[in-house]
Amino acid sequence: MSSRKRVLVAVATIAAVGAAVAAPGAAASGRHQDWDRTAYRGQIEVVRSDDGPADPTVLNGTVFVDRDRDSRHDRNERGLAGVEVSNGRDIATTDSRGRYRLPVFDNMTVFVTQPAGYQVPVDESNVAQFHYNHLPAGSPALRYGGIAPTGPLPDAVNFPLVESRLTDDRQLSCIMAGDLQTYNITEVEYARKGAIRDLARRNDYQGCGSLFLGDVVGDDLSLYDEVKELTAQTNGPARFLPGNHDLDFDATTPEHSFDTFRAQLAPAYFSYDVGEAHIIALNTVRYPCTPDVDNADGRHPECNNPATRPRYNGRIDDTQMEWLRRDLAKVDRDKLIVIAGHIGLMNYADEGSMIHQVDQAREVYALLHGRKAVALAGHSHSIENMRTGDLMKGWKDLFGIDGLPFPHLTAGAIAGDWFSGRVTEDGYPTALQRDGGRPGVLTLDLNDAAFQERFTVTGESDREQTQLGLNSPTYREWYVARDAWNDEDEPTTPAPELGDPLVVDRADLAGKTWLTTNFFMGSTGSTVSVRLDHGRPAQAVRTQPMRGEDQLVGPEYSDPAAIAEQLVHGGSLADRTMHLWRYELPADLRAGTHRAHVTATDVYGRTFTDTMTFRVVEQR
Known about the structure:
By secondary structure, the protein is of the alpha+beta class. The strands form 7 sheets. Strands 1, 2, 3, 6, 8 and 10 form a 6-stranded mixed sheet that branches. The relative contact order is 0.09. InterPro entries: Calcineurin-like_PHP (IPR004843), Ig-like_fold (IPR013783), Metallo-depent_PP-like (IPR029052), Metallophos_C (IPR032288), Metallophos_N (IPR032285), STPP_CPPED1 (IPR051918), TAT_signal (IPR006311).
């Protein structure tokens, strides 16, 4: 490097080789200290000179192996060949010396696709560092700042990596965390005491890290600093994709709608490799709704009317679609494709909505035809495990598909039902979700190019997978009465009381009362069996078969355990779910106390057991 050049690294201080960087709560976990001791802390290298680049229409740089971990490309550090670097539109593959060249345009984000066997640096908050924003004049005036002026094009943007066995293991665990969505400091603390504390105690995801699936905050983008304090407690690289509550709502064009997110956390879309998986993080949120673009295919006529125009819709813009085509073309066809977005390609909770599913879903399916793939999403604050071939009426009517081409998983939400309900003794709310599921995080366990999914309820072990209840005539009558009472502006009568939900009249047994099992990760191919007292096991029936029917909605299809909380303590109503099974109680069940033994078995043969004690009386 000539004396006329100077190196600007995107942070003021880089941790020394092998130095442990203390994070909040680190002392509480020896395993966390292990991550701190070995984590690769650093930043990308931005090289500038007084003269500037020889050709301002081309960005140059090198992907290199940072042997001394100082984030600087030293003469003795080799470049890495065959690595993809993108400007969000074009993709360059590094040459034998690790060099790349990319066309330049305003408001581009340049990022490296981390190859398996290597690790990009993380900052002191564990946020992965792998991108550079080029916006010379900065964002337009935005409430939360957007991107500060980046100035002229640098001479080079270099991407440091270190070798990592963790990212190339046959078996890897990837945290897929749905909607953190904190609206204020109180909710940040709920998250800290809940799912983040759980992640701080886990040490199984260091190689793959965590991907937060959008709605990282709830409209207040100043809380990104608080979010980084939370990720500082986790044990692996933290990556983020944008959600509809991460928007710069004062942006007047889609090009600047995620500027603050891009400045603080990550590119709007990107990809990375771990093991035999290629993970693609998409931006599936379009804001604002633009009539000549978003209604070009006639799908969003509401965009033409300012009075009814939605704030956003589920869409992948043309530039991103072209990048996706080019990105997939670089990926070996034997690899597993994990494609993630905030708004899901297809979704059960909002299956009849064009706004809350992705317009280009069929185009994405065509690109992935013949590949091993799984889709991940957040957004709906529900847990959904949808398998190949599953079909809902809304998908067929709106999108013309005849069944899902590969599994789709909705990861639930760290916030659960927007941090609603009773605050538990553990310091966070019950927040039962729209489907009755409890808050938590999804883990994708990779084994070469195969995967298994598991959901971890906040504060619980992985064995906590079911929620049992009784759906009786008494419960259904109370549901209707209490729901109507809640809707009254100024109720003049006391709130209807349910009484003991685990007591049922003998007269209400025959065909009228069911034992319900909410199997959080239950899906097509899962089974639920019930054994009463010392009897023989019998199969329960899934309430939503997902064979092309409409959503089944109402008290008959609800989760009584969830509703008993939600109608009394607030939140959404679990009046529909794709993972509820029910078992009809026998008409000849004697009066007295009974014990139900429930065994839920998932598509991988894993079994989960639960028990419930209830009482039959001659007259309630």
